[in-house]
Design brief:
9 helices; 282 residues; alpha/beta; single chain
Length: 282
């Protein structure tokens, strides 16, 4: 009788999983690692493989998916994630909360939350910021998550300032674009989205984004409910892409408590996640 996947992981431990990557063990351990990756991973997020494009990563995700762990985040289960963050923020959120508070105080009222889930930041930040009465906060996410967000808002958004849109181009004409822990899941990059807009948001706040010092690539993430393509951009490529659109870096911070390691790919380790405040130059 085979051991459950999480039991195997517990017996091996983190050091044991690293040991499996020794060259002499690689022919066997790669196959074992692939099989483990296809199961729900409940301890922390897991990563596998390196791919040059989103399409290649999606094809690999399709091949690894099963009935219990699909190759799409657009599921009812995704809408139930992160409920524990609805009334609290993480230490890595504080720089973004600081800048958003400054922008609201300066009269910015229209916030577009790209990949904002069911409103995690909207609800979580409300205990730390004084939302103006005329604030509007618009979220774009996958359909299943937004459906959960609309249902949740009906009973929890007393201010009635939250809305959802099916089109990421809804960022057009907004005062502030916010994205927390979402850019890595998108098929397009943030500069690609902004380039399509007629009226770019004058301020962009990005947080919890995995970035490599010099390399851009895709990997796969197992987040227990799905296997998804996962983008890692180089810091230089991302900042230069924003600067080419007329944005300047106002602030840049790192969150070392978040990191990423792709098994068998030592050159793709990300030691910290990144956040930025960009301002559109006149």
């Amino acid at each position: 009788m085979s051991s459950p996947p999480n039991t195997i992981r517990t017996l091996l431990g983190r050091g044991g999983l690293y040991l499996m990557e020794l060259p002499a063990l690689r022919p066997i351990s790669e196959r074992m690692r692939r099989n483990l990756f296809r199961r729900p991973y409940r301890v922390e997020n897991d990563y596998y493989g390196v791919y040059p494009t989103f399409a290649a990563a999606q094809e690999a995700a399709n091949a690894l998916s099963t009935a219990s762990i699909p190759a799409s985040y657009d599921t009812e289960a995704a809408g139930r994630l992160y409920r524990g963050h609805m009334r609290r923020i993480r230490a890595s959120d504080y720089p973004l909360v600081f800048w958003l508070g400054r922008l609201l105080a300066d009269g910015r009222r229209r916030v577009f939350d790209l990949g904002g889930h069911i409103g995690v930041s909207y609800y979580g930040f409300s205990d730390y910021l004084d939302y103006p009465s005329d604030l509007t906060w618009t979220i774009h996410d996958v359909p299943a998550v937004m459906a959960a967000g609309r249902k949740w808002a009906a009973g929890h958004d007393a201010r009635r300032q939250l809305s959802f849109t099916d089109d990421p181009a809804g960022a057009d004409g907004q005062d502030v674009l916010v994205s927390t822990g979402a850019l890595q899941y998108l098929e397009y990059t943030l500069p690609e989205l902004l380039q399509r807009l007629r009226a770019k948001p004058p301020h962009v706040l990005v947080n919890l984004t995995p970035m490599h010092p010099s390399r851009s690539f895709f990997t796969l993430q197992n987040l227990s409910i799905a296997i998804c393509p996962y983008r890692v951009m180089s810091v230089v490529e991302f900042t230069e892409g924003m600067q080419a659109l007329g944005y300047r870096v106002v602030d840049h911070w790192q969150s070392p408590e978040r990191h990423l390691r792709v098994p068998f790919e030592p050159g793709c380790t990300v030691d910290s996640y990144h956040g930025f405040h960009f301002e559109l130059q006149a």
